[in-house]
Amino acid sequence: MRFIRNKRLLIALGAAILLLLVGAGLGAPSKLYKSNDKAAYLDERTLNFVRPGLRFQISKVDVGSDGVVKAYFKITDTVGAGLDRAGITTPGVVNSSFVLARIPKGASQYLSYTVRTQTSPSSGKSAIQAGADTGGTYTLVAEGEYVYTFGTKLPADVDRSVTHSVLIYGNRNLSAFDLGTNYADTVFSWVPNGSPLTVTRDVIKTATCNKCHVDLGFHGGSRKSMEGCVMCHQPQTIDPDTGNTVDMVVMAHKIHMGANLPSVAGGKDYCIIGNANSVNCYGKIEFPAGPNTCSSCHITTATGATRAAQADAHLKNPTRAACGACHDDVDFASGRGHVAGPQVSDNLCANCHIPQGELDFDASIMGAHYIPTLAPSLPQPRIDILTIDDGVAGRKPRVTFTLKDKDGNIVKPADMTSLNLLLAGPTSDYATYVSETARAAQDLGGGRFAYTFNATIPADAKGSFTIGSEGYRNTVLSPGTTKEQTVRDAILNVTRTFSVDGKPVENRRQIVSLDKCNGCHGFLSLHGSNRNQIEQCVLCHNPNTTDTSRRAAAQNPPESVNFSTMIHRIHAGEEQTRDYTIIGFGGSLNNFNEVGYPGILSNCASCHVGTSHQLPLKDNLLQVTDPRGFIPKVNPETNACLGCHASRAAASHALANTTALGESCSTCHGVNGDFSVARVHAR
Questions:
Q1: How far apart (Å, rounded) are the C-alpha atoms in residues 146 and 153?
Q2: pTM surpassing 0.85?
Q3: Rounded distance, CA 284 to CA 292, Å?
Q4: Could you give phi then psi for residue 497, rounded to 5 degrees?
Q5: Tens digits of per-residue pLDDT, 65-93?
Q6: Mean pLDDT of the chain
Q7: Are residues 330 and 419 in the same domain?
Q8: Domain containing 578: what range?
Q9: Phi, psi at residue 540, to the nearest 5°?
Q10: Which pLDDT score is estimated for 30?
Q11: Engineering a disulfide at 465: which of 197, 270, 425, 560 sits with its beta carbon 3.0 to 4.6 angstroms away?
């Protein structure tokens, strides 16, 4: 048989074979892909021809007596079918690179065999950096199966008793099919002398990073796992321009500390010079959970496969590098800024900095990082709404509630610094609210209290209304010590919905999940710790609410603070094409145009639950008051989209497709439309 050299003919033959497989019931079903994957919307023929996706799998690594290293690996698509790295017999060229490293005996971090000397094109300075292997060769074994022979040889005195790891990372170009570039990486670890693998580097799980970042993909997109990142980002690697280490221990802490770094506060930005001489500065980064929230990344409560092997390393093994990364005004060599004086090694760190001490804000690692409003010694007042009487149209509702601390001790409303009850409705789409202080609530005994609103439920009210609670007590922590401070001890908001017309109770629709919010924010708490539950936030941030009550006349027109408008515009931040500044309490200016969303802005499911981001939206939602927008009274579907797509052209498009009968957005952007919300946001 004559060898076929025509690439198009080969691809056509491959397509025919795959279509035969489809006919036999072996085709790749689209359910393999999520709604935010472009592949989910391919027609069956294209899907089964292209077989989107990229996976690497290393089966074994051999180290010869001569130091030659060979990695046996597979390249497959999402369903496990082999791929041709040259892109001839299967669509899409696959590029791959390899890193080889070990964890030396007694060490906890990698040391790479594959290194390079990086010389700065601007300063001429040089530094050693861990990097990909060069000079290696590929051998085809079978469809999708290869052997990579490293160009880098191991030295004759290599320690074969310690952990060795190979990282493979790469990409598959499917842009010809409008599927962009697929990225993947994987790490294989073993001990060359055949001993069991007992030593690993596993401090932070990739899934933990992806709570905020959704889908890690650095250096062009192909470095996707923490397991791979830490093989190069270790003390061996230095940025020659700045002299900064890019050790993950230091770099990750500094980046997430960002604007809160003492050095940044002192006027020196934190920068790393990267590929192509790119300048990457992080001095404006504001970590959503706050710089003290170690538990956002170091998750010790996880179990099973979700728990990192060294999840508690930050508690048991404090180091000068890790601590000094955030506390960069401390000089351990001279002792400047360190109460215990100079430290020439990490040997004594754990003597003072034990995991948890006896007092809030002590020298223990947990104590030193407590957020005051979440300190364990706070009494934590808790409210529970028991009943709502006279909760009908034309009447003043009477609320019976309990108020106790976490230990069950009764807390009197008058002892609260602030205690408010809010009445809002209807739940179909909150239109208005009133807030009244309940500090003078009637004491019914046994920790039960009652408050009757001064406000009356409108006589023509229909449907369901909600009563929400918020408040705090100023509490002195660590009294009589050098750590004494007064903090707001806030209640968790509790809401209760009731019918005002005798019909079944209708709760407000759920759009987003607080768990998803707190994946990034740790513990979302705003307005002086008063608002910490979404159900409370939406009572005030309704379609009719703007910042007009806080805005001076000279600063008009006011800005919408409707929840969907505000949240979309805040998270769009630096991607916005318009200014978004809210005037807050005390006339404070809150500008969000430099917010850098750490995830993928088009991934609506990062915040939304179910199909709540899909069109059409629920009927009878209110128009949104948006005085600074292109459409001052904007319909709900248009409003949601213009929160991110804030251009004049987008507003004009929406307006052109709205008539006296309403919005027609779902005609094209509906759940089954060719331009559905999920489909146009897919990657």
A1: 19
A2: yes
A3: 17
A4: -105, 145
A5: 999 999 999 999 999 999 999 999 999 99
A6: 93
A7: no
A8: 543-680
A9: -95, -40
A10: 55
A11: 425
